[in-house]
Structures are given as structure tokens and as C-alpha cells.
Amino acid sequence: TGSRQPFPRLECLHLFLGAQYYLKCSNSHSGNFLLQVDLYVCLLCGSGNDEDRLLLCDGCDDSYHTFCLIPPLHDVPKGDWRCPQCLAQECNKPQEAFGFEQAARDYTLRTFGEMADAFKSDYFNMPVHMVPTELVEKEFWRLVSTIEEDVTVEYGADIASKEFGSGFPVRGGKFKVRPEEEEYLDSGWNLNNMPVMEQSVLAHITADICGMKLPWLYVGMCFSSFCWHIEDHWSYSINYLHWGEPKTWYGAPGYAAEQLEDVMKKLAPELFESQPDLLHQLVTIMNPNTLMAHGVPVYRTNQCAGEFVITFPRAYHSGFNQGFNFAEAVNFCTVDWLPLGRQCVEHYRLLNRYCVFSHDEMICKMASKADVLDVVVASTVQKDMAIMIEDEKRLREKVDKLGVTDSERVAFELFPDDERQCLKCKTTCFMSAVYCPCKPGLLVCLYHVEDLCSCPTYKYKLGYRYTLEELYPMMSALKMRAESYNEWASNVNEALEAKINNKKSKYLTFCLQRIILDEMKKFPDNDLLRHLRLVTQDADKCASVAQQLLNVMQKKQQDDLGNYRLKFWGQLPSLLLRDLLDRVEAFQQQSQKLLSEEMPSAAELQELLDVSFDFDVDLPQLAELRIRLEQARWLEDVQLASSDQNSLTLDDMRRLIDSGVGLAPYPAVEKAMAKLQELLTVSEHWDDKARNLIKARPRQSLSSLVPAVKEIEEIPAYLPNGVALKDAVQKAKDWLQEVEALQVGGRVPVLDTLAELVTRGRSIPVHLDYLPRLESLVSEVQAWKECAANTFLCENSPYSLLEVLCPRCDIGMLNLKRKQKKLKEPVPSGKKKSTKLETLGDLERALSESKDTASAMATLGEARLKEMEALRSLRAANEVKVLSSEEDTELKVCLCQKEPAAPMIQCELCRGFFHTGCVSVPNILQGPRVWLCPHCHRSEKPPLEKILPLLASLQRIRVRLPEGDALRYMIERTVNWQHRAQQMLYSGNLKLIQDKVGSGLFYNRWQATAGQLPETNKVRLSCFWVSWQWNECCRGKKDGISYMERKLKRRFERESFCDEKRARVKKMRTPKKKKLKLNHSKDLCTNKLERERERLFEMQRSSESHLLPSDVSFSEQEDSEDEDAICPAVNCLQPEGDEVDWVQCDGSCNQWFHQVCVGISPEMAEKEDYICISCTGKNSQYRK
């Protein structure tokens, strides 16, 4: 029961990527121990007899007889042994979730194909053969990058060909080889033969390594992938796609391997920290675009059925399958791989990764067969072996210095690979290893002696396969083999290149005899030797024929010579000339057969012509073959151009016709030429017609262009004007659809939307019925804006119409020279639109984006509150300058922003002070007047009756624009203010009102103090203070008369003539039927203001409901103080009484008149239209 060799514990982890079976090996560590057999009994039979047949479990220490187990064991197994209970417990452990999962269902090739085709067809909603490869590739990388979507596919990967069979014919396989496949049994392209060919160094590895020496099979479906990886030991790989849909590959060159690894470690450092060898596990996928963005060169290709793909040493590659396919792959190693193979072992040592085979063992096996080794391989093996011996010598010297003196020869090749792995780096040891008695079965390579155990080094033992003295002769044999071949090859090349003269011919004969007799037996078969055999055989034949001819010429007469020639002709089959004649005859037969076909392919004709180059004979068939080749190529060009109608242009057709004219007559060519000419004629006709339809004036209607587009679509060619016409028709349809959607949308269209539609409609070369109406509508809006600008804006005003109509956003700005910014500034990407209404641009954007008039009014109301708040703050700040009793030498006023200096004037609105020399001021002799500074005086302040028609006309246009919303809000604001002011006026407490608004005051302020201003510069500031009245600011004042004074004066005058006017009114009084009826003079103004407000709201509601505006208009007298009883008539009688009848002008002014003042009876007002004198004189259309 002594120590046993360790047996690795296997943890099978099924990775679905190619059904990869990874073996995680961990050796059980156990030291030397003595078993007291008499203390152990068999757990099954309960007996302690037969101690030599008693097994101790390395997992639970239970004992079992070998013959009690089911099935029984004949011998005590080597390595670790585990009882059935421990084995069951180990197998029942849950598998690690890593990378991919093993499929739960088993498939046959047919059922897997049905599943794969159904998946792809359902996923792309089209037949599998119609899905473009570009679409599959784009969708694959989208799925890889997305987190939200999960798509599950299956991949029949890494299927052992030894168990299930190969796609290539194999001797002794399960399937019988058909006669036509026998030639592939020994072919080098048969993947079963390639790894073990003479030129492949893997042929010197005796073990059958699945995937490297034995091919693996791959059955793929759409999206099934293989991740970024390189082959084991950085070997070559070759993949052959037997059949099915393409396989998309991505590859990076071998020199960029470390760069690719660095990029992946940089982008996913947390993965590589826990698993440094992550890229060796075939579970890492990354978009090639990401790698290329970090400087890694990546190449791609689509492998189609019947194509090979070869990957080079350390070339990372990945890819996926386009659909259901079947492929086979294997590794191979040529002689140039040997240096890279040794470099790979060093790399594996750093990553603690196990090796698939021992590189040193392979080199030594090749060196032991130096006499039969390919000479080129021998030369390379000799160089690699020299490096191996040098490293081994250095490491053994290092071990000797550490104190390891005991050594023994060990045949490491007899041990399984997992029992001779280094405890530290997992390298497969062959040349030497170090082990300690305290850890039987464990060893380390000479690089990691310190990691073996804690025992002193003198207890260690060095195991070696060869001594250094045995290695040097092996390397010398390789060297001699390589050197002799180099010398022999030089002699052969010199002999073959010798000129035919007396001296050289003797040398050639000598060299050939020596090479064939002496050297031929030494070297294995190679290309140079095969070429040499052919040369000598040809030379022998020529010499034999020449000798026979010479003998005949000497012995026979001329007649006999001719007969001998006929006899000699029969000996030609064994000569080169006969071979040439046979090939010429075969060529002629094949040419005749090919020329008899209606139209052979260009490839077949070219291949036959290439054969004719091998013999320098002029044959009659060659000229005809060349003619037919030109015809075949032309027909293929026509077919290729016609296969895609989107790429067949008029120029292509003309070019093909021009090139076909010079061809020799042939039925197939003439037929194709006629068809092509007909297509060109039709295409030119419709292309010209499409161009004329596009440029037609007037433009063609959509209904007339649709049939033309359908005709053009039937033509299998690319017509540029036809495409333009089709695009124009589609744009016209889209445009009309947008216009119709705008009509039925339920909202008043916005000006910007209409302008954009008009601009697009003008660019479409199709007659659009709605376009003139939209253009007219936009023109009306522009005309309305010009009219409004003429009404409100001062001459050379720096303000826009919207700035004048909207509440002010610039209160507090002292600099009048503002930067003229565009009203619609683009909002920077990534930033939210401003909703603080801090600038005019913010306000205009809010108005443009408002859904209806109500939201626009709410936005303007918010702006008004900000305006009033800012104005109050500004007024308070300016008034502090007057009320403050302390001197402030740094105080700045006026536009010039200088110190106060008399005389100065104060703005009625903002309470700011301005030098009279810096601003325009009214004449002081005219009495107190309202004065506004340049900041506050923004518009012409037109009367209300001039503004209301603008709003009414905008209602009729039925288009929303920011200026219209602002005007509507301003009118509503004005009417509301007039209503409140009228109520305050009729309260009768005028003294209280004057006290509230103040009166004109004079201030002595900013007195000079010592050290500030001299006494001669004392300032006396005169300020005009008048009441804050919005209506007065809008209209101005008459010279020297205040508003309230004129109001009272007019009331007294009306009362003095009351009796006379009443008498005249009563004579014409009749019941009112049509016009507005006012009962009391006092209620006239109040009711009229209420009526104006109601009409304004009615206009707003009609705008929102898309109804045409009513004929209601607003009128107001020029002097608001005459609203009680004065109408716009020249000689108003100011009627008073219980009822006063009014009539409205049906002209352009829409003003209201007393019926008695204009001589209209109630019957006339009821039945006829009334047009005032002003409208009759100004507008010729109203004149009778």
C-alpha cells in the first residue's frame, strides 16, 4: 500500500461554444504516510482480511476490497482513488456557469438543420437564402452589444471526427469510399492527412491529439460564433467549409497579438485580474470596430462552401456563422513554426497554462531520426535544439548551485502528460525535473525549484532524460544532415544550369551520374530530387533516339532510311515527341467538342487556350477559340450588367453595344445585341420623357406623373431622370399628406410650419393644388406683419415688432446699442430649452411651441409678471437716488453713465434720471407732460381703434404667429386697464388719485461737499412728476391741458346744453332692433368696455376653434374722455336719455355713430349698410 502516483481529479465543465470540454485539473497533495492495515476494514464486507487488496479512499478514508467493488478491480490503481460515494458526490456538484452552456437536446444533422433554418427564417422574416450577409453581420454585433435583448442559438462545435466520421474520405472508415473520391484519400488537402504529412512537424508526435492531429467537425447555425482566440501552441489552423451558408471571419495578424491582448485588458481589466489566461478559454467576444479604434489591425472575410481558411501562428481570430453549415478544421505546423512553438511554451509558463504536448520531446524525437529527416526540417530543428541545449545547461548549473546533487535518469515520455506537469507553471516536463520524497508524484521544472516544498534542497532529486553529453551528438547529426544537403543542392543546381558544350556536357554527365548513384539514396524525396529525376530520364530518351538515328544513317541507304523512319515512328510512345503528339490530338478533340456547343463559358475557353501554351504548335483551332473567347466574355459582361437593374446605366449599355459591334457574327451575340439595343432605345425614350416631365412648365399634376413612374419602374435599367421623377412624386405625396394632416389636425397652423411647407413645395417639380393657397396665406401673414410694424414701430427703430408687442425682457439695460441677435437662436445639443423667459429668444420659442392660444396667453402672462417685478425693482432703485440723503460721488445716471449734473429730467416709467443734453426733452413752456426715456419709449403708441382691425384681420387669416399672440395679449391687457381706470374715475375721488400718483416736485440734491465738488458747481435738479397713466402714455397729451381737466370741462359743457340736445333726440327716438341699446350715459362707457372685452374673448375662442372671425370689431373714440356721449361724427349732438340708438360703419373703420348724428333712422339701420364719410372718401370701393 505504499505511495501511489497521483491521478488528477477531473472537473468537467461543458462550454457550449463548440461543445468545448475543459478539464480543470488539480492534483491531490499528500505526503508519505504509513497505513496500519489492521485498523481498516472493508466498508462493504466488514472484513479486514486481504490487506494487499484493500483500497483506501483519498476523499473520505473509507476502505474497500478491490474484489468487493462493482465492477471489481483486478489491481490496485495508481494515483488517487475515490470510493463510489465520493465519486457520486463529486459528479452531483452543480456545474460552473462560465461562458456557454451545454445544449440539453441531442440533434441529428437533419433535425439541427431544420431548427437552424426555421430560426433564421423566423428571425429575419424572409427565406434564409434571401437574407444578405451584411444584414446578418450588422444584427449579430447589435445583439452582442445590447444588454436588453437575449437571443439563444446552438453550435455543434468540436465534434471529434474519429468518433463521428470526417467529411473527407478516410481509409478504413465507417463509410465506403466511392471510386471518384479515391484520389482524395492521399491528397495533402485532405485534413486527415495534412497534420501528419512529412513536412509537418506534428507528424513526429505519436499521440492522437483531437483538434490538432485529428480534425474537429463544426455544425453551425445563424449567429453561432467562435470567440477571439489563438490556436494551441500558436500553431497554424486550416478550416474547410464543406457545405452550407457562409462563415464570417475576423482576424488580426500575429505581430498584433500582444496589442490586441493589451486592448482587451484595458477595456475589461477586472476579468483579467481574476483570470490572466482568459483569452485562452474561448469566451471573449469584442467588436472588431472597437479593436480597430484602438489601433489593432483587423481583417474580415466571408468563407463560402468549398473554400479553405488558414490562420497563421499567434493570429487571433473570431467569427460567426451566417446560417446552417458544416465545416471541418485541424492544426498543422510547418518547419517555420518551430521558433514560435518554443516562444509559446515560454509564454504558457508565465500564465501557468498547461501544454498540449511537450515541445522538447518532439524536438528530441526528430533529432533521433536525423538521417531520414527532411533536410530543410533538419536545418531548422538543429537551430531550435541548440537553444534547448543551451537553456538546459544553464538551468542544470543553477540547480547544482542550489545544492541538488542527487540525480537519476527518468523516461518522462512514458508518463501521462498530467503526471509530469510542473507543480507551479503546469509545463509538461521532458528534459528534466526536480522532485522531493515528501511529495511523491509531484515535481517541478528547473525554473521553479524553489516552489517545490519547504524541505532543504539536498533532499531533492534531479530527474533527467538525456545527459548533455548525449544531446550534443544528436545535434551534430542534424547539423551534418543539413550541411550535406546544402552542398548536394548546390551541385545539382550547378549541373542543371550548365551550358551544352563539350566541356560542360562532360561535366553534366559526370555530375548526373555521381548525384544519382551516390546522393540519391541519402536524402528523402524532395522537389529538387524529383526535378532531377525528370531531367535525367528525358536526357536518356533523347540520347537513345539520337544514337539510333546515327546508326541508321551510317548503315542504310536513303530509301531504307525512309522505311526505317516509319518503323522508328512506332517507337515514339515512349518519347517526349509522342507525348506531345498525344496532347495535341487531345487538345484538338476537346476544342472541337467545346466549339460545337452553342456558347461555352469563357472560363472553359480560357482554360483550353492555357493548355495550348504548353506546346509550341500552330493549330487551326486556336484562332477560332480566341474569337469565341471574346464573344463569351462579352455575353458574360452583358449578363452580369443585366443581373442588377439598379446598376445597369445608359452608359453601360452604350459601352456594351460599342464593344459588341466589333465581334464576329454569332447567333447568341446577335440576339443579345438586339435585346440590348431595344432596351437602350426604350430607356433613352423614358429617360428623356422623365426629364421633360420634371422640367415641364407649367408643372405636371401628380395624377399624370404616377402612371409614368409605374412605366419607368418596369424598365430593367437605371434611369437617372426616372429616379429623379420617382423621388419627386414620392416627395409630392409626402407633402400633400402633411398638408392634409395639417387641415384635419384641429389646430390653427403656425407660421413657421406653413413657411417650411411652402419652401419644400416650391422645390418639388410637381403641380401641388394646395401650394398657391399656402403661398397666399404666408404672403398675407407677411403683409400683416409689415402693416403691424408700420403701425407700431418708430422710424429707424432698433426694436423688432415682437419686442414692442411682448412684455419687456430687457428692463434695467442701460446701453441702448444692443447686439442685434437673431430671435430664433438654435438650442445647443444636449441642453434643455430655456423656460425662464429671460430673453426675447426664450419668449419667442415658448410662443412658437405653444399648442394653442391659451398656453400662449399663459406664457405672456408669466412674462408680464416678470416685467412688472423688474420694473418695480428698477423704479425703486432709481427713486432711491432721489430720496437718499447721503452723498454718493460714485453715482452714475443717464445714457452716458456719468455723474448727475443739472438740468436733468426723470422718466415717468422707470424713474431714471437723464441729462437734458443727452436726450430729447419737451418744451418747458408747454406745461407738464408725460416724458419717457429712450429705453421706455419703444413704439409709436397707436390708438386702440387702429390696433383692433389688425387683430380682426389676423383672425380672418387663421394663422398663428408669436406677434399675433402678443398683439392679442396686449389688447386684452389694455382693455382690462381701461376698465379699471374708468371705474376709478367714476368713483369721483380724483384728489385721492392725484395724491397716489404725486405731482411735479423739485429736488435740491447732490450738493457739493468739501473734497468732492466746488461751490460753483452746485446742482439744482428739476424733475417733472406726472401721474402714471397707461392710456395717456399710449396717446400723448394735448398742449397744456391734463386729462382730468379736459374730462371735467367736457362734462360741464354737456350739462349746460342738455335740454336742447334732448329735445332733438326725442323727436327721432324709435325702438332699437339691430344695434346696441344704451340706457344711461353713465353706463355707456362701462358697457362699451365690457362689450369690447367680450368681443376680444369671442375672437380668441373663434381662433382656437378654427371658425371664421365674425364681423364684430372694436371701436373707440380718439379721445377716451368723450366715451360718455360723443361719437366720431363731425358735429356730434351728444344725445342723452333713457335710450340712445347707435349704428356701426360697415366700411373699413368699423366705428360706432349715433343714429341721430349721421341722420339714420332705425329702419334704415336695420335694412341697409351704413358707410361713414371717412370710409367713403378714402376707399373708392365704398363709394356709391
Automatic annotation (TrEMBL):
Enzyme Commission (EC) number: 1.14.11.67
Example of a GO biological process term: regulation of DNA-templated transcription
JmjC domain ranges (all copies): 183-349
Cofactor: Fe(2+)
Reaction equations catalysed: N(6),N(6),N(6)-trimethyl-L-lysyl(4)-[histone H3] + 3 2-oxoglutarate + 3 O2 = L-lysyl(4)-[histone H3] + 3 formaldehyde + 3 succinate + 3 CO2
CDD domains: PHD1_KDM5B, PHD2_KDM5B, PHD3_KDM5B
GO molecular function term, any single one: histone H3K4me/H3K4me2/H3K4me3 demethylase activity
SUPFAM superfamilies: Clavaminate synthase-like (SSF51197), FYVE/PHD zinc finger (SSF57903)
Single GO cellular component term: nucleoplasm
Compartment(s) where it occurs, according to its Swiss-Prot or TrEMBL record: Nucleus
Catalytic EC class: oxidoreductase
PHD-type domain segment(s): 39-89, 891-939, 1124-1178
SMART domains given in the database record: JmjC (SM00558), PHD (SM00249)
Key words, A-Z: Chromatin regulator, Dioxygenase, Iron, Metal-binding, Nucleus, Oxidoreductase, Repeat, Zinc, Zinc-finger
Alphabetized Pfam families for the sequence: JmjC, KDM5_C-hel, PHD, PLU-1, zf-C5HC2
Family: Belongs to the JARID1 histone demethylase family.
Protein name: [histone H3]-trimethyl-L-lysine(4) demethylase
Taxonomic source organism: Accipiter nisus
